[in-house]
Write a structure and sequence with these properties.
The complex is a heterodimer of chains A (261) and B (300).
Chain A (H helix, E strand, L loop, with lengths): L1 H27 L16 H8 L1 H34 L5 H13 L2 H14 L6 H26 L3 H8 L4 H30 L2 H6 L7 H11 L3 H33 L1
Chain B lengths: L2 H36 L16 H6 L5 H5 L3 H35 L2 H16 L2 H12 L4 H9 L12 H26 L2 H9 L4 H12 L1 H16 L3 H7 L6 H10 L4 H29 L6
Classes of the chains: A mainly alpha (261), B mainly alpha (300).
Amino acid sequence: MRRKGFLGAYAWLVYLFLYAPIAILVVFSFNRGRQTAVWEGATLEWYSSLMRNDLIQTAVRNSLIVGVVSTAVATVLGTLVALALGRHEFPGAGFTRGLLYLPIIIPEIVLGAALVTFFGVAAFRLSLVTVVIAHIVFSISYVAIVVRARLSGFDRSLEEAALDLGARPLAAFFRVTLPLITPGIVAGALLSFTLSIDDYVITSFVAGVGATTLPLQIYSMLKVGVTPEVNAVSTLLLAVTVVLILIAQRLQQAPAERGAS
Amino acid sequence: MKKGQDRRSGWTGAALALPTWLTLGVFFLLPLAILFVISFGQRATYGALKPIEDLGAYISSGKFLANYARSFHSIYLQIFWRSLWMAVVTTGLCLLISYPVAYYIAVVAPQRRRNLLLGLVVVPFWTSFLIRTYAWMFILRTEGLINHFLLATGLASKPLELLYNNFSVLLGLVYGELPFMILPLYASLEKLDRTLLEASADLGAPGRSTLWRVTIPMTMPGVVAGVILVFVPSLGQFIVSDLLGGAKTILAGNLVQNQFAVARNKPFGAAVAFELTAAVLLLLFVYARYTKRKGQDVLL
């Protein structure tokens, strides 16, 4: 029993290690002092100064555009390919799996280098469009994995029953399969959006002038110097991603819980 | 199922996969192929590619391998060596720190708290690596929290240089990669058949020998997956070494980035990128062989 208590205490220490730095950052984003390591009372001043900062406003807008467009495309493509892998035997299924694993496996820096070289050779001007393309490339796999997991989480006999009862394949898909996998699709989309608004490495290669996203903006700010605004904007980005992740997490857990009850 | 139905299912499957094939074919495989070709080229004075007049002569003179040969100069070997040992140490530390945590979540913690504990690992897993790295920059820098504390309490008379050294980079790497080790370990510990642990205990094995002879061998797939998930990104790391290491601890990832963004020597950057990729793929090949032997379930 004593050993169990010891293990629990150790686990909470590791959690402290994981969360303390983030917590410190968040707390100090409300610090009145400019000299950022000394607490001088609470203020929302840095948040309101973000609202007046044109560079940050533009970066937020760019990040949202890229996030929404790349997520929309990646979610459709990822869902379709997950359906292919989960419900059909087709030539090239093995190749498709490998193709989906590769973007996750290859170091980000290699993907960034490959894309910027390709855009150069193909005479694509670097812009928000090239950022969107890059984000679609690395998001498809994650959507596919999440939707695929959802597909294998429920019984195929439900669809077969619909077909046996005379439903046309498309009707069976829209009235049985799609409603069942919707939580997986939404979870995949949320993760894709999170990856998109968080990405720095690949985006730094393929973003042209005027296509600065929020992580790029944060990076260039903290390269110049740590300011309270950096803490505030980081806190906002953290808050958004944490909310999205928690929703995605709930959606992914849903089938198991229902099965248990 | 009837033959005809099978064939139709095949066509539907291929049609559903087609948009992904096209997208990843054009914007992923093709760029990688181009990068590979360029890694054998040479740059012209202003960072453009030098046109090759006589391909036969270029190849027979061995010039096409110049970038790869250059990457074996001692200055670059030093960078690769640093990347390698840092990735190895990071992976080892992550494994040591994570195993007891994963064991606690999966086996020891009360059932009702398990989801919360797991969620607390999942959140950093998905949140911005950049911001999590920046948090340490905020804490460790000369005017940072730790130095402020040390000066205020009189434990130090002048600020310590906590940033821009091997220690700060390793700390950042371990911190950043930890969730990627805990999650796969948890997944395999959670699947572990509890009755086996009880059987081992009932037959009189002391706790330690159950751990070494039952638990750890049975969770090897999780260990291997975690090692890959931590080692691969550590090897290509770029943000941590840039923010917490500065110019003194350049890693292979920084070398690639530098060749593309600053030095404008894309062919050399491409060659280094492919050496990195080759190392990663070799590792994954070993992993694939391993999982095949174990009959592991896969994600897709």
